[in-house]
Amino acid sequence: GAVVTIFRVATVYGPHDRGNMARMLTAIARGRFILPGDGNNRKTCVAVENVIRASQTAATLPAEQMADRTFVVADPGGSYTLRELTAA
């Protein structure tokens, strides 16, 4: 009788990040980041606030609307090239 909903979350960034993005930013700040290739590979990202908002919204919807569904959680237009990310 459990309701199963799957969130496929993009690379998360934001306050208190200790993951992938934080390590990349630390490497950039230390001058130790090497841009692989031409930097045109794309990475889909999502702000932690948007993950929270999606979770809260899902929790308030009726179970029959959420049952057996899969959602991709990403920022609108949140696909960036690695070159764009490192420049930002």
Question: What features would you describe in this structure?
Answer:
The chain has 88 residues and is of the alpha/beta class. It is built from four helices and five strands, in the order ββαβααββα. It has helices at 20-29, 48-60, 63-66, 82-87, and strands at residues 5-9, 11-13, 42-47, 69-73, 79-81. The termini are far apart. The mean pLDDT is 90.
Which tags fit this structure?
three-stranded mixed sheet, alpha/beta, 88 residues, 4 helices
Brief characterization of the structure:
This protein has 88 residues and is of the alpha/beta class. It has helices at residues 20-29, 48-60, 63-66, 82-87, and strands at 5-9, 11-13, 42-47, 69-73, 79-81. The relative contact order is 0.29.
Secondary structure blueprint with pairings:
Layout: E1 5-9, E2 11-13, H1 20-29, E3 42-47, H2 48-60, H3 63-66, E4 69-73, E5 79-81, H4 82-87
Parallel strand pairs: 1-4, 2-3
Antiparallel strand pairs: 3-5
Pairing-aware structural class of the strands and helices? alpha/beta
Number of strands: 5
For the sheet with most strands, the description reads: 3 strands, mixed
Taking the alpha carbons of the first and last residues, their distance comes to 46 Å
